[in-house]
Amino acid sequence: MSVEERVKRLQWQSRRGMWELDLMLVPFVRDCFRLLSEQDQDRYEKLLECEDQDLFVWLMKREIPESSEHKDMVEKILAYSETADLSVFRNL
User: Fold this and answer.
1) How many CA atoms lie less than 13 Å away from 1 in the CB half-sphere?
2) Any idea which architecture 3-90 has in CATH?
3) Among the listed residues 38, 77, 35, 34, the one whose alpha carbon sits nearest the alpha carbon of residue 55
4) Of 18, 45, 70, 90, which is the most buried if we count CB atoms within 10 A?
């Protein structure tokens, strides 16, 4: 599967039906997914397998994910959503 096909599929999967999550996940996958390492791309897909409630508390900074992989990806999503600046994202 090409990266572009993967991005389209993940944009759809990133629409969670919860406005707060949609506002963070959809722009992240649209703008940043192509810049991620292959390992981080896989981590993002794994993150999407989590329950919406877990994603919500992590992305609203109410809890920290126990998994270091989820924690790293949540930090990247938060860094981008807080600044919408790709140069900040690239420094992570």
Assistant:
1) 9
2) Orthogonal Bundle (1.10)
3) 77
4) 70
